[in-house]
Amino acid sequence: METLKEGVKRFGYLFYVMDPRAHNYEKIDHVKDYYKEVAPLLFATVLLEQVVRYYQKKPLWRFSDTMSNTFHGFLMDLSKIPFKGAEVFVYAYIYNNYRLIDLPWNNPWTWIACWFITDFCYYWMHRMIHQVNILWAIHETHHTPEDMMFTSPMRNHIFLLPIHWLTYMPMALAIPPTTYLVHYQISIIYQYWLHTEIIGKLPAPIEYVLSTPSHHRAHHGRNRRYIDKNFGGFLIIWDRIFGTFEAEDPEEKPLYGITTQMKSYNPLVIQTQPFIKLYNRIWEYDNLKDRLSVIFKGPGWTPGKPWTGNIEDIPHPAPDVPKYDPQLPLWCKYYAIVHFFFVVNGYFMLALNMSDSSMDSPVLPHCHHTNPWWTSQHEKWRCYAGSNNDPTGKIVIQRRKHIVV
């Protein structure tokens, strides 16, 4: 019974359903790692979504797309290692030395105020990374999937985390670090369930106040009417207040992806191509002012146009254009699946022990999907190195007095 109660409680985290009194912490090291607590639920819902899609007669996941999303999720988590602790240190330093007021950490009103302010900051951060080109180069990765499923939020850029937590640093002038850490995690977890087509429109009061899957499907649409809309994380009221709201129209289904199709599932390409495009655009102009405008204005900006460009310049997406879906030989799929389970094992060992690991293992098997010339040679080298216990070939983790491979 206790296990069931704990499972229900953790399931509530996905929807921001939690008792503030049970999630107040005096010390930073007492704050739960909510990501770890919900991880098994996320994997379960990924599978459950496919069952529901099958009965709803919707297309099931596409192999390469799903694998790419998942490997990006691993890369995203590995990218936390260089920054681990930095965000907490900076936030706590500002709070301890420059805070303007003292709010009690165990007061429910402090908890509620933090929830509200965190969501407000998220709205502006999300809007900014859509409307500042160099930041869009980071966020574009998340918008490349052409399907909307529970694996889609895993596809993110490895540089997104510093942008996220830097946005919240002004909160340190008032909000205790422990309260901030709770909401920083839960606000991201909440957005996981927004990435799906199996949930239709919810009752009108919910749709009016909260961010819902319907609102977020519109946000991910590359149709003209949906571009730069619905930035809210938990509350959609910010979009209604600041003029960026657009309801999902049943007569115009959102077509997902970016306006120029990403024709690759290689994580290295998906992570770097937006910056290559930005670099090439910078050098299209001769004067410094235009070059800086390319960097700091919107992705659609050109000389003589508004900050974000003209919406009319965005081509109408054709619904009959096929999704990028290269067909792989069966042996390649089996190889990727087997390697995937080894990576999952290593990933969870890494998450539990916070030890270092090679970035090669998550990336290499998926590079086979696009077959760059160097992949097979690199894979041979990686496996050879692994046979000699080189950490670049295996995920080797020191755990107490034995080695887990």
Can you put this structure into words, describing what you see?
Mean pLDDT is 86; it is low at 355-369 and 384-405. The protein has helices at residues 2-13, 34-55, 63-78, 80-83, 86-98, 108-131, 133-143, 160-167, 177-190, 204-209, 213-219, 237-242, 267-282, 288-296, 330-353, 360-367, 375-387, and strands spanning 397-399, 402-404. It is mostly helical and 405 residues long. It is globular and about 55 Å long. The protein contains 17 helices and 2 strands. α6 crosses α7 and α7 packs antiparallel against α13. A two-stranded antiparallel sheet has the order 1-2. A hairpin with a 2-residue loop joins β1 and β2. Helix content is 53%, strand content 1%.
Name a few traits of the molecule.
mainly alpha; two-stranded antiparallel ribbon; globular; disordered C terminus; transmembrane
List the helices and strands and how they pair.
Blueprint: H1 2-13, H2 34-55, H3 63-78, H4 80-83, H5 86-98, H6 108-131, H7 133-143, H8 160-167, H9 177-190, H10 204-209, H11 213-219, H12 237-242, H13 267-282, H14 288-296, H15 330-353, H16 360-367, H17 375-387, E1 397-399, E2 402-404
Antiparallel strand pairs: 1-2
Domain Fatty acid hydroxylase: 111-244
Membrane topology: Multi-pass membrane protein
Keywords: Lipid metabolism, Membrane, Monooxygenase, Oxidoreductase, Transmembrane, Transmembrane helix
Return Rg in Å.
22 Å
The largest beta-sheet arranges its strands as: 1-2
Fraction of residues in H or I helices? 40-55%
- Helices and strands, in order, run as HHHHHHHHHHHHHHHHHEE
